[in-house]
Design a protein that fits this description.
The structure is a homodimer. By secondary structure, the first copy, chain A, is of the alpha/beta class. Chain A folds into three domains: 46 residues, no CATH class; 208 residues, 3-Layer(aba) Sandwich (Rossmann fold), CATH 3.40.50.300; 48 residues, no CATH class. In chain A, 50% of the residues lie in helices and 12% in strands. Chain A has eleven helices and seven strands. Chain A has a seven-stranded parallel sheet, sandwiched between helices. In chain A, helix 2 packs antiparallel against helix 5 and helix 5 packs parallel to helix 6. The longest helix of chain A is centred in the last third of the chain and has 43 residues. The radius of gyration of chain A is 21 Å and the shape is globular. At the A-B interface, helix 3, helix 5, helix 6, helix 7 and helix 10 of A face helix 3, helix 5, helix 6, helix 7 and helix 10 of B.
Chain lengths: 324, 324
Amino acid sequence: MSRYVPSRELVERVANGEIPAIARMISRAEAGLPEAREALAEIYQRAGRAHVIGLTGVPGSGKSTMVCALAARLRAGGSKVGIVAVDPSSPYSGGSILGDRIRMTDLSGDPGVYIRSMATRGVMGGMARATMDAVDILDVAGFETVIIETVGVGQDEVEIAKAADTTVVVSAPGLGDEIQAIKAGMLEIADVHVVSKCDRSDAQRTLMDLKGMLTLGVRQGKNSEWRVPVVGVSSYDGSGFEELMSALERHRNVALHTESGRERRVAIAGFRLTKTAENLLMERFARACAPLTLGFAQRLHRHDGDPYSLAGELVAASFGKERS
Amino acid sequence: MSRYVPSRELVERVANGEIPAIARMISRAEAGLPEAREALAEIYQRAGRAHVIGLTGVPGSGKSTMVCALAARLRAGGSKVGIVAVDPSSPYSGGSILGDRIRMTDLSGDPGVYIRSMATRGVMGGMARATMDAVDILDVAGFETVIIETVGVGQDEVEIAKAADTTVVVSAPGLGDEIQAIKAGMLEIADVHVVSKCDRSDAQRTLMDLKGMLTLGVRQGKNSEWRVPVVGVSSYDGSGFEELMSALERHRNVALHTESGRERRVAIAGFRLTKTAENLLMERFARACAPLTLGFAQRLHRHDGDPYSLAGELVAASFGKERS
């Protein structure tokens, strides 16, 4: 597939589950190419069958290893599994945290598992927009489960994990204070809590802490149809994954058939729309201001104006007077 | 100072080094209040004397402890030290990673040290904008050294650390693979490398790795007047801090008197201006689209349109037809 394939044709190939077409369509979504938008609109209209699982956890929580173990079990049950990994992009190399997915090689020969790292480079709203497009592409391609794996640092990363049918937060025993504190903001978004590395003796304490927190009433009243379970797993000895898969399936059923589930889907649509709109607006601004920025920067540097007045001027000059 | 103080009066109080005025002015910057902009513009015009140090490192690298130890030594040398800590905001609680600054209590009785955690809640560009305003406020208040401490995860966080006179990247021995990989994108921005926890036996290897990487030519040719040093410190036994302070001072002198230093300051001005403009634009958009979002989200949810077409409509509807 080295020739240029029109986006419309690509959609049909995606729908046939052709891996090269999936890869290419995601790349076009990631690049934010305007000519891909019609195809992505078509993809959106066809999507909606997959169970989308958002999975997040702090660095060092063993997320990737756990995702692999989970994917292998879902595969064994006959489900095709797509994994979209969201990494904060590095400022120069564009490299990604999870670029080195050595631990995922067990799955790499299996056409029923597709893993994609999203490397978005900073256009605001772009990461969320492209990630949700990638999820739709995998959905249309016939992947019954799509896992969005994000590192649980940064508001966008946490919000993307939340924009799923089921949100899983992974904790691990034995992480340092600074890491534990990052976690605080993530705990409330969990539909299912997972404690990884449960072969370790100190995992019991992490399990108890989470259960204690839930008993204390965090998240109560939000969705009374669902009690957030805490599941311990070990990717090392394989324990806990049956229970986890059962919890995911149960949550999906609740989410599909309750009013709070419907409200959540509308909220996700709102999040997606806002991110797409922000991305659109920022792209327009980036294009329009690019030829002007150096001149304005030099003015600011020599104190010919202040950041606020010059920023106002830059927006006005970029979008024309009528938009200031 | 419980009555409302007009921003103009607040500027004078900041310039007198009054701590409550500093705190209040930073809060107004953080909130992005339009009525604070004139005062912040005035602050900008008066700023420019402090040595601004951007310091970043992965979670668990011992940044906060190291910053405290560094601040204590700078204080001992007679310098007033401001610390601006940039935390990814949590999605619900607005809590911050470094909110619990227990380790900083050694410094808490000293009026010559001011520590502020920035808790910005997601308006795009807002964190960078507010952080740079906070730095200026401390500068004008007479703090000779201002340290911007950011967690080295997330593009914005890394970019803010780069937007300083001198950028310090903190590494630590013995962190896991996932953590080490996050670091990759940060290494190239260092003007000074610090390896913390050098009382540990495995720190030598981290030092050698960094030195080896620099020998291999990373960052060569960018600024030939400056050779990036690698400094080992231990907050536990106090070693290495004299060498670190000397490296910071030497870098500052080089940065102040070279063409590449001047170019960097223009680039920082460009970054600041872009972030301020983005923030301005996103605030306008957020205000304008708020009453429309639910209706659009419901349309997207029932597939009456796709994310791209509806996002375009939302932008157009928010800013009026002439701005679509």
